[in-house]
Amino acid sequence: MTLGLPEHLVKRTLSHALARAAHWFALTCLAGSLAALIILRMSATATTAATTTAATATTAAASSDTATTAAALAILLMAAVLVALSLRRTVILSVAYLVTGSVATYLYTMAVLGMPDVFPSSNIFLVTLPKLALVMVGGAGTAALVGVLWGTIGFVLAEAVTVFAAVQTGVPYGEDVFTISTYFFLVSMLLLTAFVRRQRSVQSALHRAMQTDQTRLLRHDLDLRALALNQDTTLNQLVAVARAHPGALSDQLAGSIRDSLQTLRGTDWLTDADAQSVAPSRGTDAWLTSEVYAAIERSRDRGLVVEVSGERAALCRLSPASDRELGLAVQQCLVNVILHSGKVAAEVVIESEPNSISLMVMDAGRGFTESETGADRLGLRQAVRRRIEQLGGSVSIFTRPGAGTSVLLSVPVEDDEPQPAAAATDAPNPDRVPQ
After folding, report:
1. Right CATH number for 209-432 from 3.40.50.2300, 3.40.50.720, 3.30.1130.10, 3.30.565.10?
2. What gap in Å lies between CA 151 and CA 147, rounded to an integer?
3. pTM above 0.70, yes or no
4. pLDDT by residue (tens digit) across 307-323?
5. Contact 41, 100 (CB under 8 A)
6. Which of 241, 156, 150, 223 is nearest to 382 (CA)?
7. How far apart are CA 116 and CA 103, in angstroms?
């Protein structure tokens, strides 16, 4: 019955659904009451004209028309209040509906039972139509017990005015099964709804568990972003300062430190990469506008000699997020060369495949055993491997002590992206000259 709704919506949704169904049922009963008044009045007029004198028929018809008209107007007023109640369930409108409904039920019962020799008792279905509508009050409030209270008040008022009208018209009063069945059905539905609401504890637990799990994942993602940010800024700048020549900092290094401090002070790193990145340019400018190029230039500013070869223009096939994350991963690989390899030179090779772009960072340094890497070495783990794997790519590390290190980064791209021009690969590469 809850349709998987959150706990704070279940109670109100079920209450509104039951009230709306009750109001439609009540409107149907009121429409039937109006139709019954018209049909019975036409039938009574014909019968009176055939069995009485002209003067007597005129007097009886006038009296019956007055009662029927008053009952019809009261039914219409009751329907109008019901429509207002269905649009806005308030205590005032609920009380107004009970009052107008009691008056309308009384006038309707008087008009119908006042027709001679038509109804032998008050428990005929046509007599009960406005009573059924009065029971379906669907008053203000969302609690099941409140709904039972409103329905009980409507049932008591309906029976009371029916008894009073039956006494005045001289027609025997009888407990009708229609009103009683409708009342008990309404109460049963409300109590069943209350029982279902009490069972929502299981649903609440599921929602809480889901929210807790989502919070845990968000916190984990935030921790990983913070670690990667620390690696990209603080640690990398410390390495650059440690390797800088004594004296004043170069303009490039000072600018890089200022950019890192601005990143640490801001909150842009919390947002998605797509919102921060700009798509790489096409054609011959693709290499110069890529994040990989920017990362290599920053490493050169820190004294590392970087030789670049391969299909550099293929970087235009990367999405903004892939370009940014690949650039940061390459930057961390080059920082690792500066910090751990014992060499001042590295090589970057770019290759393009139909569904991916691969980039290898190589050095001829001292190498290492990856399985023996300390837990505090977060560069490859957080700033490289995690970044590439989040893009759906892969990272392969080829190294052993004394034999250098090669890190292969592979990032998927869309197959229908435009392929780079062959001339971009064959053109002379000024970056191959060590700086």
Report:
1. 3.30.565.10
2. 6
3. no
4. 999 998 888 888 888 89
5. no
6. 223
7. 22
